[in-house]
Write a structure and sequence with these properties.
alpha+beta; three-stranded mixed beta sheet; Nucleotidyltransferase, domain 5; globular
Length: 148
């Protein structure tokens, strides 16, 4: 019997993001540095989305594995904010990411009570925006978030 291939990994790095075998030329620190405040403004979010879309489009027409695995403490915070139990593997689906992004976007327009449900800080916001765009453009369905 042949061994199963290892799961495709999602790895967030300061200046790039690895999506399985793909390298996307934008990372969490680069995005977070563009945010002028916490939570980011609507303009900050739009600028980040444009930069992410440019980095993804530079790859051409590609698809990643529909479900990736990640072991990242900030991603665990986001999964917990989405209501998932992160003490074991947690499946963070695109619908949950969209709900988190909606809360972040509400905070950017001044509805801070809504934004409070999203982990504070520029890095979680940057990761959420990046994850959302990766899921949309590379047709990811979910990320399996490893426990701590």
């Amino acid at each position: 019997m042949a061994a199963s291939p290892p799961p495709a990994m999602l790895v967030f790095e300061p200046r790039r993001t690895r999506v399985g075998a793909l390298d996307v030329d934008i990372g969490i620190d680069a995005i977070a540095q563009g945010f002028r405040r916490d939570p980011p403004t609507a303009l900050d979010l739009e600028t980040a989305i444009e930069g992410i879309e440019e980095a993804i489009s530079a790859l051409g027409t590609l698809r990643a594995d529909p479900v990736l695995t990640a072991d990242d403490p900030v991603l665990r915070q986001l999964a917990a904010a989405a209501g998932l139990d992160v003490r074991s593997d947690a499946l963070l689906a695109i619908e949950a990411v969209e709900r988190l992004f909606t809360r972040l976007a509400a905070g950017s327009s001044g509805a801070l009570a809504t934004a409070d449900a999203v982990p504070a800080g520029r890095r979680p916001a940057a990761m959420l925006v990046l994850l959302r765009e990766l899921m949309h453009h590379l047709r990811l369905q979910a990320v399996c978030v490893a426990p701590a």
